[in-house]
Design goal:
It is built from 13 helices and no strands. The longest helix is centred in the first third of the chain and has 40 residues. It is globular and about 60 Å long.
């Protein structure tokens, strides 16, 4: 699909996700109504407010500085900090639109919803939605931190906390956005020239997927081990605004957390490790199919595709964690989804690394940049299925 055609569904999706997140933030006020307690329990209301808070123009109680002490000076100071908070939200909504459109444009262009690619396009755009939201929250975080009145105090830990607050709402909003984006993309691709799926040597595809998965496994297996994670947390120092970078580093480097089986029942330990293995299996399978789904295997397309593959592996593991979680009876059903979408920054980091690594391996193993027509592809290759 040409960029001219792909830009239409990308813009529609960008507008939709921005409006849905704005609506979600505006809905946070409804959770303060009296009738809410008759629908949700107290824990569920608290959790829902936490989900919606990053997108609400109403700052949490006590989150803004009072400015100066006393009289008109205090009122003026509070107004300035409130303006900073509003600016942060404006930047956040503009950024989520820009980041989503940029990613969706590339995905729809390189994985058009034709020739059996529709499910892959849908899953890729859906995975990109929480990534775009995380990037938007990251970009707008400095303004939000300053609006609290103590931006220079433990800036990096505050930044890590703000980035972690994007919440599960972006995953649910992303589903509706992806469906609409793909439907519009199918409409715009109706009269376009068919773009058959590429032929990629199966051995090269498997080897490339293995290398890309090994990059992701570096985070899941090595960096996420308790002692290594503790070293990352405590070993990097700094001064001033760059002090205490441990929380931020863990957020962008760790896709999980695990320790020795001696700390708990062996059966539970094996069950959770099986979930980690499943995550890597999902990533491997997605990376194996990715070169054959792309209309052309370029570095940006492989990088964004690998990010989406890593996000889907992460979400698959989190869904399984929900199935074995036994805290629902204590905290309420909403709490079951509270961890959904966490780890997106690390998925972005290692997805960006895994994509080019897989592409280099694919080229070295005999895969070619098949941007040409299928008839020009050698008969020695067959489609990856």
């Amino acid at each position: 699909m040409t960029y001219r055609r792909a830009v239409i569904p990308a813009l529609v999706g960008g507008l939709l996700i921005t409006l849905l997140l704005w609506w979600a933030g505006a809905s946070a006020q409804a959770l303060q109504l009296r009738g809410t307690s008759s629908v949700f329990d107290v824990q569920s209301v608290t959790e829902l407010r936490r989900w919606l808070a990053p997108w609400s123009y109403d700052p949490p109680t006590g989150s803004l500085s009072d400015g100066a002490a006393g009289g008109d000076a205090a009122s003026t100071g509070a107004t300035r900090y409130s303006d900073l908070y509003s600016t942060a939200l404006q930047i956040r909504f503009v950024a989520v639109f820009v980041f989503f459109v940029a990613g969706a444009l590339l995905l729809v262009h390189r994985i058009p919803p034709t020739q059996g690619r529709t499910p892959a396009t849908l899953l890729a755009v859906w995975a990109w939605a929480p990534v775009a939201a995380t990037l938007a929250v990251t970009v707008s975080a400095p303004w939000l931190i300053v609006s609290r009145g103590h931006g220079s105090y433990r800036f990096l830990p505050q930044l890590a906390g703000v980035i972690a607050s994007s919440g599960p709402v972006t995953v649910f909003v992303g589903l509706l956005t992806a469906v609409v984006t793909v439907l519009v993309a199918r409409l715009t691709a109706k009269d376009a020239e068919p773009q058959p799926r590429q032929s990629v040597p199966p051995r090269a595809a498997r080897l490339a997927a293995s290398v890309g998965t090994a990059v992701v496994a570096l985070s899941v297996v090595i960096l996420s081990y308790q002692s290594v994670a503790a070293w990352i947390q405590t070993s990097f120092g700094g001064g001033g605004l760059l002090s205490e970078p441990g929380d931020l580093l863990r957020q962008w480097l760790l896709l999980g957390a695990w320790t020795d089986p001696a700390t708990g029942p062996l059966g539970d330990w094996l069950l959770y490790r099986a979930v980690d293995v499943l995550m890597l299996v999902v990533v491997w399978w997605a990376l194996r199919l990715l070169p054959g789904l792309l209309t052309r295997t370029t570095v940006p397309a492989m990088a964004v595709g690998a990010v989406c593959a890593t996000v889907w592996g992460l979400l698959a593991s989190q869904v399984l964690h929900m199935a074995i979680d036994d805290t629902v009876d204590v905290w309420g059903p909403v709490y079951l989804f509270s961890k959904l979408g966490t780890g997106i920054p690390a998925a972005l980091t290692f997805g960006i690394l895994a994509g080019p690594a897989a592409l280099v391996t694919l080229r070295l193993a005999g895969g070619r940049d098949t941007g040409e027509s299928p008839g020009e592809v050698g008969q020695s290759s067959r489609p990856v299925k």
